[in-house]
């Protein structure tokens, strides 16, 4: 456990749900843990006892990626962990593959509706149907413009043309829209929707005042910082500012609320963790600013300033996106100047 984690409380200690099993975390709420094929090797999914359209059963929050091993584990959960009841609804916090990957399979299997934000639902469709490109030539050009000139790295990025669709082969055709401030009735309790930006187009967290529980998705995580990246689709964006501003949306949540995150363990201490995130990014911004004061820096130059461990290609795509996000926040607040060199690479130098 790192020092920052010591400032949080973990009511369940080190207990984790076994594969294909569910663990009770609160009355009517069960925790399922599914594997991911990345360095971040798991996602937390939530089962909520519910009644929907007159049917008794369970609402699932988030789905896991579309891989056979995850489907097999879900089948074990269905057979042994639902008390003989069906799935009546699927809620997805956002469009990233580990969250929406099996939404189509789950909604079809159980004839259950999908609910999520409109922006993430439509964006997922664009990715799956090939109208938005995740990887390939456009991402390679974006990374090259931001300083990645390594031929092997660029070739790897160009080859990632089916990264999203391999993990999310299909998205449901229909959905129910969740908007910020909406109240969802789940299991006899009201859950307030809190919209977050920067990590995903329109991320939805859920907070129940009656249960004093937050399902935080990826917006507030206990051990790792949420990835915030500038992508090839929105290359001039300022997602880090959006993310930090979005954390203010949790200000009304009590300090002793139980937080159910998408990665890591359930914890208490949401405002402590949000303060840690602000401090973390303030430190990173200052390190980036100092680096740009020494000499003009590209996003690729900033990666080792922020990430000191060896990165594989998957991790590099996130790290470079996040490095650019820090540079853009400094740029939009006037701390650095952005220039494009004769080599076509965008670099940032300290203002003044």
Automatic annotation (TrEMBL):
Keywords, A to Z, come to: Hydrolase
Q: Which GO terms describe its molecular function?
A: hydroxyacylglutathione hydrolase activity
Indicate the segments forming the Metallo-beta-lactamase domain, all copies. Answer: 42-263
Say which enzyme class the record assigns. hydrolase
Q: Which InterPro entries match?
A: B_lactamase-like_C, Metallo-B-lactamas, RibonucZ/Hydroxyglut_hydro, Sec-metab_biosynth-thioest, WH-like_DNA-bd_sf
| Keyword Transmembrane helix found | no
Report the SUPFAM superfamilies cross-referenced here: Metallo-hydrolase/oxidoreductase
EC no. given is 3.1.2.6
* Name of the protein this chain belongs to: Hydroxyacylglutathione hydrolase
User: What is the organism of origin for this protein?
Assistant: Pigmentiphaga humi
User: Gene that codes for this?
Assistant: gloB_1
């Amino acid at each position: 456990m790192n020092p920052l984690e010591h400032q949080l409380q973990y009511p369940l200690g080190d207990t984790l749900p076994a594969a294909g099993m569910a663990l009770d975390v609160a009355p009517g709420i069960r925790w399922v843990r599914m594997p991911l094929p990345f360095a971040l090797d798991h996602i937390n999914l939530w089962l909520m006892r519910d009644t929907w359209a007159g049917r008794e059963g369970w609402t699932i929050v988030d789905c896991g990626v579309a891989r056979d091993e995850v489907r097999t584990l879900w089948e074990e959960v269905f057979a042994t962990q639902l008390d003989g009841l069906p799935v009546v609804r699927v809620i997805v916090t956002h469009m990233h593959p580990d969250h929406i990957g099996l939404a189509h399979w789950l909604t079809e299997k159980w004839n259950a509706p999908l609910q999520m934000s409109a922006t993430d639902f439509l964006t997922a469709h664009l990715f799956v149907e090939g109208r938005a490109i995740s990887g390939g030539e456009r991402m390679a050009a974006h990374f090259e413009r931001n300083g990645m000139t390594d031929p092997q790295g660029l070739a790897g990025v160009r080859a990632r043309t089916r990264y999203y669709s391999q993990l999310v082969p299909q998205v449901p055709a229909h959905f129910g829209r969740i908007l910020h401030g909406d109240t969802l009735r789940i299991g006899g309790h009201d859950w307030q929707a809190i919209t977050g930006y920067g990590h995903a187009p329109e991320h939805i967290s859920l907070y129940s005042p009656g249960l004093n529980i937050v399902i935080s998705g990826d917006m507030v995580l206990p051990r790792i910082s949420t990835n915030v990246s500038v992508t090839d689709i929105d290359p001039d964006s300022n997602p880090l500012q959006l993310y930090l501003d979005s954390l203010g949306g949790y200000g009304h949540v009590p300090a002793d609320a139980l937080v159910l995150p998408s990665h890591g363990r359930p914890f208490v201490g949401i405002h402590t963790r949000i303060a840690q995130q602000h401090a973390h990014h303030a430190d990173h911004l200052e390190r980036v600013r100092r680096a740009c004061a020494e000499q003009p820096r590209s996003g690729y130059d900033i990666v080792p300033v922020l990430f000191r461990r060896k990165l594989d290609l998957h991790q590099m795509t996130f790290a470079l996106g996040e490095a650019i996000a820090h540079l853009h926040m400094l740029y939009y607040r006037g701390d650095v100047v952005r220039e494009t060199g004769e080599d076509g690479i965008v670099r940032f130098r300290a203002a003044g």
